[in-house]
Amino acid sequence: MSDQAFEVREKLAQLETALLETTPNMAVLLRDIHRTLKSDPDVVTILSEAECAILVNGLKKQTATTIATSVVKKKPKKAMSKMTVADL
Length: 88
Prior knowledge:
By secondary structure, the chain is mainly alpha-helical.
């Protein structure tokens, strides 16, 4: 295993611990992981799904966002040719 892969896995372990606690260094860990993965994208291919999930959970917590899990369907619109004055 390459040094960069080991480094990413080590930081992911630290990130997992940081997720369980409120630590101010989560942003630093995410930045370091991003920098390492950007410099060697092949490292991503050897990460397990659990390790990728840790990274995603860290990003979700840091940015206070949620990832859409379903698509909201819109009500179908009436065709303009079928509209009447009452619809307005």
